[in-house]
Every structure is written in structure tokens, then in C-alpha cells.
From TrEMBL:
Entry protein name: Formate dehydrogenase
Lineage top rank: taxon: Bacteria
The species this protein was found in: Burkholderia territorii
Length: 22
């Protein structure tokens, strides 16, 4: 399930920088 893995990775990576400064 590489698609799911990539989707989760992208979501997590995009959420990390948003939550860091917050």
C-alpha cells in the first residue's frame, strides 16, 4: 500500500511545519 503510505507521509509532513510555529 505505497499510495496510502505516501498520502500519510505528505499529510504528516505538511501538518508538522504548520503545528511547529503554532
Amino acid at each position: 500500500a505505497p499510495i496510502v503510505r505516501d498520502a500519510i507521509a505528505a499529510h504528516r509532513a505538511s501538518l508538522t511545519p504548520a503545528a511547529a510555529p503554532a
